[in-house]
Design brief:
Elements lengths: L8 H27 L9 H57 L4 H26 L14 H8 L4 H18 L6 H18 L4 H5 L5 H18 L1
């Protein structure tokens, strides 16, 4: 997420220094050839003006479209974080109620509460690492059991495996009949929190490429370079 109002010029230059250097060298070469007496490079400005106008409209359209996709991705990720917190609050509240009603199961319920919340945290981190194409999966170790961590580590789609493990854990809690709160909890959390978090990987394309697709980026870049080279 962008948190600053202004970009530092040095940081911006780090992204575009290759294009700036190429344009500078190309413009200098054209200027040197023209002033050395070679006038074969002179062209009519009318085509360049037409291309420039079309480029301005095209870039403006792509900018609006890119911002729309970025904002959509921001809403998806914000919804994921919000419903993950709601899931954690529900687990905490309902388990604490059952602990007061059945103190003899306090140890098992506390373990289940910690496991469920930590697994949801691991899911958010796993999805973040997958979308950013990072391999620092050691960040998931504090939130998963050792045997579960090994299974996730050896899987291809790690967020999906964690999601499946969360569903299995909730079903086991119901089958063992030590979580009587699960039936009313299921109708609320599954429809709001779990459904949102479990569907997040299906929207990973928008989260991974929030600005625009690779093909549109290549088209915009090529069109801009053609106009710049022609204008030189």
């Amino acid at each position: 997420m962008i948190t600053k109002k202004n970009f530092h010029p040095v940081k911006v230059l780090g992204y575009i220094w290759r294009e700036v250097l190429f344009t500078l060298v190309w413009s200098t070469l054209i200027w040197a050839l023209y002033h050395s007496g070679y006038e074969g490079l002179a062209i009519n400005f009318t085509p360049i003006g037409i291309i420039g106008s079309a480029l301005a409209i095209f870039v403006a359209f792509r900018n609006n479209s890119a911002y729309g996709r970025w904002w959509e991705a921001r809403q998806i990720w914000g919804s994921l974080v919000e419903h993950s917190r709601e899931f954690a609050r529900m687990v905490t509240n309902f388990v604490d109620v059952q602990i007061r009603a059945h103190p003899e199961q306090q140890e098992a319920m506390q373990a289940f509460k910690k496991e469920a919340i930590y697994r949801q945290i691991a899911f958010a981190h796993a999805l973040r690492l997958q979308l950013r194409r990072k391999t620092t999966w050691e960040e998931l170790r504090p939130f998963l059991k050792p045997e579960e961590y090994e299974v996730v580590l050896n899987s291809q789609n790690k967020p999906n495996i964690i999601n499946m493990s969360s569903g299995d854990s909730l079903r086991r809690g119901q089958d063992q009949k030590m979580l009587e709160w699960f039936t009313p909890f299921r109708s609320r959390a599954t429809s709001l929190s779990l459904r949102t978090t479990w569907e997040a990987p299906n929207e990973s394309k928008i989260l991974r490429f929030p600005g625009s697709t690779i093909s549109s980026l290549a088209c915009s870049s090529g069109f801009s370079q053609y106009c710049c080279l022609s204008d030189c």
